[in-house]
Amino acid sequence: MKIILGSKSQGRKKMMEEMGLEFEVISPDIDEKAIRFEDPQKLVLALARAKAEALKKRVNKPAILITSDQVVVCDGKIREKPENADEARYFLESYQKYPAETITSVVVTNLETGKSREAVDVAKIYLKPYTKEEVDELINDGKVFNFAGGFTINGEKWEHHIDKIEGTRDSIIGLPKEITKKLIDEVTK
Questions:
Q1: Angle between helix 10-18 and 177-188 (nearest 10)
Q2: What pLDDT, in 10s, does the model give residues 52-96?
């Protein structure tokens, strides 16, 4: 059956490719800021469900639909993509004091049967300090604005700052592969 990834995330796309899946990408184009919960797990599940609902209305063929969302929690506060350079700087500098937790939801829906399964995965990353120059370079590069919490663990500029990971790298990147495979199996049985 055809697989659709309902996400523009390059990290999720990469994880799907690493899983060896053939898939099509369709952006759900929802207003994520209109959905708010203080509990990060409720928030990412609500966002992934909303993405699935939006795409169900647009996809008129049998398929397995995979939607996901992620936030970063640091010092007890939810962090999405930084909105400006000041926020990005604050995020990056705070990781010197506190670890970052990625809270990632996955919703898998069989559009033919309507069967849906979902899960949330949590991973924790401890980062080594960034210098002021490194923070400036990362902000000027602009990629910090593409990631929840303003960071990724992919790429040379980022990887040498990883001190320790609790959980899986793929979950931090945006799509826990083992959980995604399990959910796909559950909706196709």
A1: 70
A2: 999 999 998 999 999 999 999 999 999 989 999 999 999 999 998
* Segments of the chain assigned E as strands: 3-5, 24-25, 64-74, 77-79, 100-110, 116-127, 162-166
pTM: 0.91
Percentage, residues of the chain above pLDDT 70: 100
Give the separation between CA 171 and CA 10, rounded to whole angstroms.
Answer: 13
Tokens 């069967």 sit at which residue? 115
Q: What residues form DSSP beta bridges with 102? A: 72, 123
Q: How many residues does the chain have?
A: 189
Residue 35, pLDDT score: 93
107 compared with 159, residue with greater pLDDT: 107
Q: β-pairing, 64-74 with 100-110?
A: antiparallel
Task: Return d(Cα 3, Cα 19) in angstroms, integer.
Answer: 12
Active-site residues: which are they?
Answer: 69
Q: Residues 51, 106: contact at Cβ < 8 Å? A: no
The residue written with tokens 């959905």 in the block is 35
CA triplet 147, 149, 151: central angle to 5 degrees? 60
Q: Which helix (H) or strand (E) holds 128?
A: none
61's enclosing H/E stretch is: none
Would you list the domain boundaries of the chain?
3-188
83 SS3 class: coil
- Assign a CATH topology to domain 3-188: Maf protein (3.90.950)
Q: What are phi and psi of 54, to 5 degrees?
A: -65, -40
